Amino acid sequence: MPIVTGMPIIEARDVFFGYDDGPAILKGVSAAIGEGEFIGLIGQNGSGKTTLAKNFNGLLKPTSGVVRVNGRDTKTHSIPVIARTVGFVFQNPDHQIFCSTVREELAFGPVNMGKSPETTRELVQDAMERFKIEKYADFPPAILGFGLRRKVSLAAVYAMRPRVMILDEPVTGLDWKSAMELMEALANLNRFGHTIILITHDMRVIAEFTRRCIVLREGGIAADGPTREVLADFDMLEKNRLRPPEIVQLSDKLIGRGLKEHVFSAGEFLEKYRREAG
Ligand SMILES: Nc1ncnc2c1ncn2[C@@H]1O[C@H](COP(=O)(O)OP(=O)(O)OP(=O)(O)O)[C@@H](O)[C@H]1O
Ligand SMILES: [Mg+2]
Fold first, then answer.
1. Which residues pair with 18 in a beta bridge?
2. pLDDT band at residue 99, thresholds of 50, 70 and 90?
3. What are the pLDDT digits (tens) for 228-247?
4. Which residue has its alpha carbon closest to ligand 1 atom 28?
5. Is the per-residue pLDDT at 32 higher than 90?
6. What is the DSSP code string of 149-175?
7. Containing structural domain, residue 221
8. Quick one: pLDDT at residue 274?
9. Which residues contact 271 (CB under 8 A, 6 or more apart)?
10. What CA–CA distance (Å, rounded) separates 265 from 24?
11. Which atom of ligand 1 is nearest to the CA of 43?
């Protein structure tokens, strides 16, 4: 487990979780998330990513074990209290959007948190600018395209300024350009100190944006470490039916033939190959 200095913003200790009376879905997960991290949560379908993420923000409570958010046990604090620290952006934006304009949608959280009208206006404005949706402020979210609805759902969570944002498959269904715009906006939030936990099946996005990667397998942690180590462990990935991004696979074949080590993006490839191949 990576070493997190200082108090973790999220700490899971030996978490077991099952839905209702069903079987255990999470089976002894322990992890500490430090403030300011950019983490990828990966694993094949059904491995428990969404279930773990919902345990991280108190939407679900462990059957046994403990999740602490900012030191608070999620079992003894209400969902709204925990959600102020850990915002969760659902996989399907339509499960989250329900107001009649974008502006109202973004104001909903801050108003519920008891923010003044003036502060709410500022938070909404800032969130619209950050996700470049100002021109849709007075549009009903329902008439916007999928990519924009995704941005609205993200901006609505960001408007509450949670210290941690968990995003469940935020780039699924987006074209590459929209996906990169969204990821750049998240990278920017991370630069300003927000902790980001990203669930995705897109290994290229994991390689290019995250610094730490947690791999889930059947409700347990199969690997947890720096993204550059996790994505270079081809055997472990294969056991989890995951494939490293093509650029990492290519660089693997070129080690000793112009490259000394794996690279994780096309830009890094060009830079290192040129330098090392002379
Ligand atoms: N509401 C629920 N009630 C009962 N079982 C559920 C519920 N939600 C998920 N499960 C089960 O829990 C397991 C883990 O599901 P989860 O959605 O957490 O996986 P995931 O890694 O997010 O998968 P995916 O990549 O498909 O989104 C699966 O076996 C799933 O069928
Ligand atoms: Mg899921």
1. 24
2. confident
3. 999 999 999 999 999 999 99
4. 46
5. yes
6. HHHHHHHHHHTT--SEEEEESTTTT--
7. 10-227
8. 75
9. none
10. 37
11. 21
Number of structural domains (the chain) is: 1
Per-residue model confidence as pLDDT tens digits over 263-275: 999 889 988 887 7
Closest among 246, 271, 267, 243 to 259, alpha carbons compared: 271
| Range of lowest pLDDT (72-81, 91-100, 259-268) | 91-100
Q: Which residues pair with 167 in a beta bridge?
A: 89, 198
pTM above 0.85, yes or no: yes
Identify whether 186 is part of a domain.
yes
Cα–Cα distance list, 101 to 28, 127, 267 (Å): 42, 14, 40
- CB within 5 A of ion ligand 2: which residues? 49-50
212 pLDDT higher than 70: yes
Measured CA to CA, the distance from residue 157 to residue 110 in angstroms comes to 9
pLDDT tens for 162-200 read 999 999 999 998 889 989 999 999 999 999 999 999 999
Distance CA 113, CA 108 (A): 9
In a domain, 253, yes or no: no
Distance 222 CA to ligand 2 centre (A): 17
Q: Choose which residue among 15, 17, 49 to substitute to test ligand 1 binding: the one with the highest number of ligand atoms within 8 A of its C-beta.
A: 49
Q: Is 25 in the pocket of ligand 1 (CB under 6 A)?
A: yes
CA angle 209, 211, 217 (to 5 degrees): 100
Sheet of 64-69: strands edge to edge?
A: 24-33, 10-18, 64-69, 72-73
Ligand lying nearest the CA atom of residue 44 = 1
Establish if 234 belongs to a structural domain: no
200 pocket-lining for ligand 1 (C-beta < 6 Å): no
Q: Is residue 233 one of the residues assigned to a domain?
A: no
